[in-house]
Amino acid sequence: MGCSRDDSEANARSVQVRRILWAILGLNLGVAIAKMLYGAVTRSLAMTADGFHSLFDGTSNVIGLVGISIASRPADRNHPYGHAKYETYASAGIGLLLAVAAWRVGVESIRRLIGGGGAPEVNAGSFAVMLATLAVNVGVATWERRAGMRLKSDLLMADASHTGSDILVSLGVIGGLAAVRAGYPVADPLLGLVVCGFIARAAVRVFRSVDETLSDRARLDPREVEAVALGVPGVLGCHDVRTRGTASHVAVDLHVQVDPEASITAGHAIAESVERAVCERFPEVSDVIAHVEPLDEYQQSKTKRWSEGV
Is position 2 within any domain? Predict the structure, then answer.
């Protein structure tokens, strides 16, 4: 059965995610422009690379807006489980952009190390720009991660990881600027490589999150779902609990065992009670299917094998 969620609640979640992405898009574009312009003026590869990273943050917000718009569509004949995974596809797009950014920054840093190109100009303005944009990134990453956890949004969590990588990168760039000013110009391309590493690490984290959804990794502890089912009157056993989907749209199927003498009508009523109980216990669950079986000797052996394997 599909859990009786209020459509207005789902729409409200989608609206909240979109508003957050629009706000962060504006902030990311402002941060990117500041870093890239000042980096170009002072010929700082590390600052320009960091600005490029921030620009990709803005691009990922656009991808996220498109993804959440599609993901918010209701289930239809061709998508009976809904469109929630389009949010995951958008997260994969963000990961791909991060991978491309890491490659470009790495190539440019290596080119500068091998071929040279002169020392960048470092002044008080360089530090002012980096510190100001760092403060913005800290605020954005904190806000977005909290919103992602509250709304159970894979997209916001992926984008928060993207923005969070900017914080570490910016700290490294600030350290590199200080080293350049102290007379070590090679620190600029070296910090470019460090930036490359952080961007690549963020990409890997995003792809891992995407994999959890697309590979149908279990979303709920089967023991907790089993406990809910066993708490329903008439349920004598439970096994083969499976869960999958996105963090905010989890599908559950399980087998429940009842008295062999129970009528089909009674067994069906027990199954529906189990489905309602699971929906009420786990707000992130959007669909539950409970398969009813008579608790005979064969079914007891199935339950035992499953219990030993979990």
Answer: no
